[in-house]
Amino acid sequence: MNTSSEMPNFLGRRQLLAGFGATAALGACSGTARRAAIKRPPLDRDPLARFRLFADASQQKWEDHLAEPAAGRKLRVLALSSGGEEGAFGAGALVGWSATGTRPEFDIVTGISIGALIAPFGFIGSSVDAELKRIFTDFGTEDIVKFSPFNGLFREALYDTTKLDQLITRSTPIEFIDRVAERHATGARLFIVTSELETARASVWDMGEIAQAGEYTLFRAIMRASAALPGLFSPVDLKFTANGVTYSETHVDGGVHMQFLAIPAFAFTTARHREFPDGEIYLLINNTLDPAPVAVARNPLAISQQALTTFARASALSSINATSLFARANGLDLFVTSIDPKSGIVYDPSDRFSLPYMTELFEYGLERGKSGTLWSRG
Length: 378
Hints:
The chain has 14 helices and 12 strands. It is α/β, with parallel strands linked by helices. The strands form 2 sheets. Strands 1, 2, 3, 6, 7, 8, 9, 10, 11 and 12 form a 10-stranded mixed β-sheet that branches. The protein has a two-stranded antiparallel ribbon with strand order 4-5. Strand 2, helix 3 and strand 3 form a beta-alpha-beta unit. The longest helix has 30 residues. It is globular and about 55 Å long. It starts with 9 loop residues before the first helix and ends with a strand.
């Protein structure tokens, strides 16, 4: 299933990107026409307020989407970060943690980018571990994406993600989404973050509420949108009808705004939660925070990719530090895990979603989870 021979090397990609400038005018014209046809909801009256809030929302908006805390138990949060194919580590870590019998049920689970694909499984719990493992160890490049250079020149992205859409649909049947709704009914919350292209705002989606409403297509589209790497994967148009009017918004990878959603602060600081101040936050980072030096090819794509990777890691580290300060100030326990740079697992950036690489990362995460060495105090 690993199709590295079909994937372009950095030089080939650089030559392809050079052609983008020559065709930018064509893409801009078609994009402008498409955007002009989109009917957008007014910014001050969100018809999807039942299903989402914005990342900068007020305390009252957060309270509308949070349940009453359960008496006599800690509030537990699991935050799953972005990371592309490194999500195999997070999937393996959860499955390995389950094997110890100590993995808790989480009151709040959040996911961004690849974390958004894992989050519903982490939310339902250990009973769906087999399917989570299958996603990261049975499906490689040819089952997820197809490199389509002319797609990138004349459409929206370098990769055709039709098969990824199909994989998400197969992995989240109606029965699966109904189980998300069942957990939501108990007071647990599942949040996924996307970035809206036109307004540059981050949407935090209340996936359990969407599941309860039976909006199965919207549920899957949000998972797909949160993992839509700009330029590589096509943006996702989220369509919905309110008061007889059909609207559409274009969303991309939630990692554009943040690497993970750890707190959210109001989950711990609203008046109704102060009676139960204890809590645990688990940050599962699908990346290496302190990587070993690597040789970077001297071409535009290789340099820009390394720069973006550096930016993502720096953003994650900054957010971890902020979360650590918040946890200490509010008497919370913080636990963090990430890929150890000494793991010895080598990533080839020219071979996206390589099955051998993801399988090795999954097994590494699995062993970390089983051995009890997964979490460090933050």
